[in-house]
Every structure is written in C-alpha cells, then in structure tokens.
Amino acid sequence: MPANNTLIATVPPYARTVGDPRLSPATLGFIAVFAVLGTVLTLAGLVLGAILQLLASCTALGAVTIAVMAGSRRLVALLSSAMNNPQQ
After folding, report:
1. Interacting residues of 29 by C-beta distance below 8 A, sequence separation 6+
2. pLDDT of 12 higher than 80
3. 10 vs 72, higher pLDDT
4. CB 55 within 8 A of CB 37
5. What residues have CB less than 8 Å from 48, skipping those under 6 apart?
6. Which range, of 17-26, 45-54, 73-82, averages the lowest pLDDT?
7. How large is the C-alpha radius of gyration of the chain?
8. Most distant CA pair in the chain: distance in Å?
C-alpha cells in the first residue's frame, strides 16, 4: 500500500491568493496609525530622527511577531496533520 505523503490543511475562504495586489483593511489601518503617530510626535516636538527610529523599531517588532506567528501556525498544522494521518 503506497504511503500518503500529503498534508491535510484547510484554507479559509477569505484567504487571499498569492500575488493579490490589494491591500487589506488591516494593512491600510496600520499605515494610517503610523502616519497619525508620526504627525502627533512631530507636533509634540520630537526630533525627526527619533520618530523614524521609533517607528522603524515598531515595524521590525511587528514583522518578527508576524513571522513567528505564521511559523507557529504552519508547525501546528504540520503536527496536527501528522497525528491525524500517520505514515504506514
């Protein structure tokens, strides 16, 4: 009997396809928040270099968080699939 080497994972119907050029509402919201935050900090008298450093740090932290969460979901899906579909 041949081994079934496929991983079973469902894709939610609202998931975007690869190469979809549209920006999601969450992405547009983050862009707006960064613009508003930069404006408020400028009006408060913070130096431009400090604002850029702060926003870049926040962006890097967000990117790392998203990468870790995406990797965790893939790992959980892999483990779940492996437990539900044992190799013969």
Report:
1. none
2. no
3. 72
4. yes
5. 42
6. 17-26
7. 21
8. 72
